[in-house]
Specification:
The structure holds two protein chains of two kinds. By secondary structure, chain A is an alpha/beta fold. Chain A has a domain of about 170 residues: P-loop containing nucleotide triphosphate hydrolases (Rossmann fold, 3-Layer(aba) Sandwich). Chain A is built from nine helices and ten strands. Chain A starts with a strand and ends in an 8-residue tail after the last helix. Chain B has two domains: about 280 residues, ABC transporter involved in vitamin B12 uptake, BtuC (Orthogonal Bundle); about 40 residues. Chain B is built from 14 helices and four strands. The N and C termini of chain B lie far apart (about 45 Å). The chains are: A alpha/beta, B mainly alpha. At the A-B interface, helix 2 and helix 3 of A face helix 6, helix 7, helix 8 and helix 9 of B. Chain A: It comes from Cytobacillus stercorigallinarum. Chain A: It holds the Pfam family ABC_tran. Chain A: InterPro entries: AAA+_ATPase, ABC_AA/LPS_Transport, ABC_transporter-like_ATP-bd, ABC_transporter-like_CS, P-loop_NTPase. Chain A: Keywords: ATP-binding, Nucleotide-binding, Transport.
Chain lengths: ~250, ~325
Amino acid sequence: MTLLKIEDLNKSFKALHILKDVNIEIKKGERHVIIGPNGAGKTTLFNCIYGTLPLSSGKVYLAGDRIDHIPSFKRTEKGMGRTFQKNNLFEELTVEENVRLAIMGKKKYRLNMIKPMQNYTDLAAECRRLLEEWEMIDRRAVLVKELSYGEQRLLEIILSLSTNPEIILLDEPTSGMSPTETSRFVKLIKKIPESITLVIIEHDMEVVFSLANKITVLHHGTAMMTASPEEIRGNQMIQEIYFGGGALSHD
Amino acid sequence: MKKAFLSTGLLLITILILPLFISPFLVYLSTEILVFAIFAMSLGLIMGFGGMPSLGHCALFGLGAYTVAILSEYTANIYLLLGAAILISLCFSIVTGYIAIRNKGVFFLMITLAFTQVLFLITSRMKFWGGNDGYSASVTANFGFGEITSNMGLFYMMGFFFVLSYFLLKLFVNAPAGKVLKGMMENEGRMIALGYNPKTYKMIAYLIAGSMAGLAGGLYIYKTQFVSPALFSVHMGAEVMIMVFIGGLGTVFGPALGAGAFVFLQNYISTMTDRWPLILGLLFIAIVLLKRGGILHLIQFVTTFGLKLFKPSRSRNAPVDKQVKGKEQAS
């Protein structure tokens, strides 16, 4: 079943044509990785899917509903979550407060103006469950700005998970991490249940091939090819434009 | 919740017993301070919790004042008058807020200022209601249990509304809507990604602040018995902003302290020298240079520093604990 469908998406900033007729279909449960050299338009594509940037033309469907004209926060309500390339958290709040704020986004009482936030027991319980699941419970009272970089990256994912999404857009989840941190982090991403579809932008090829079951190659704003990891590995043209030829031959 | 009740209780007791210890002149002055405290706290909400610096907040204060002054010709019922003041400023907030919250930072500042300037021009041309010279009204507060004419009575009346406003604001900032507003100020992009509509929360805060400023304006008339277009001047808008800054941005009670300090300085130092704005200006510069902290932050800093002095052993042990932990993890 197709969950996310991108149809003839175009995005240009004045004369600069960033994305040209991009067509991608993402099926439910897929781990769909988008790769491409710097400046290929990967993050712009995410911003267009999520509505941070308006499209120049084209259509985006989520579970059959057209979503390209609705504001971003409504896309979150419809089950789309995202993380950011650079950590984008509430630095002055604790881990727990961050997660509570995130969970509350889908609660009816988020507009309540009288009852103090810490008195909502369901919120506290849900927050605890999520933090325990992701092994962050010991760090719950720490201010986010005092967390390590890797922990902040993890919190990014926890926050996007706490809105109960059907699909998450992960923008370079392992960027800026050391190799050890990266491999630990990949294991954590693999823990995300199959019911949640992942669309991932990634540069690290090891990460790409250990996570992906579908890969789209974006080159100069066009979706060159969407195929399984094996096909991508074997494709001569892709190797030349992206890997500089023969980069993966040792595999 | 407990904390909000506790601090409100403390504030209430302070207000109740304060007139026993201070001179009649200070009681008279405190009446003005309390009105401006409500006004400054309302601006403090949108500035310190919503990130919306409004130079036109005095428009709502002035509208409340004009409403009570003009309507007092027709009725003396204080519930009706204050209700009307709140309603009119609420309506004005809905219209201006709808336009203003689409902008951020300096643009928000300029748009709110523009609305205020419009009101300034209208009121200074309103010949029927005094125009540039202002408009005198004789209003006496009567809540149904006797007329309030003494300074002491007025003090308690303003004190009641001040404590009420404080309590409501305190509830709001700790409730979900308030927390979301604060989150919005810190990181709007992330809040949108979490499914919150930024405009809803900003608008709610703007309307609360607007009606509270209107109430303060309405109360102001019971003290001064006089309104003039000066209420809509840039000067007024800047003054209340300075109150918020010197009191402590990002706190509920800070702006009230700022209002106190401001009115106090204005009245006391002006008896000594005509150059009192200079002293206020220096104070303001010092606070801006120290970044974000006002009087309230200074008090908090002093108390935490004092506590550290009394518990030296704990602070010395802390780094050792960390070292041990670090070694354990390393091994």
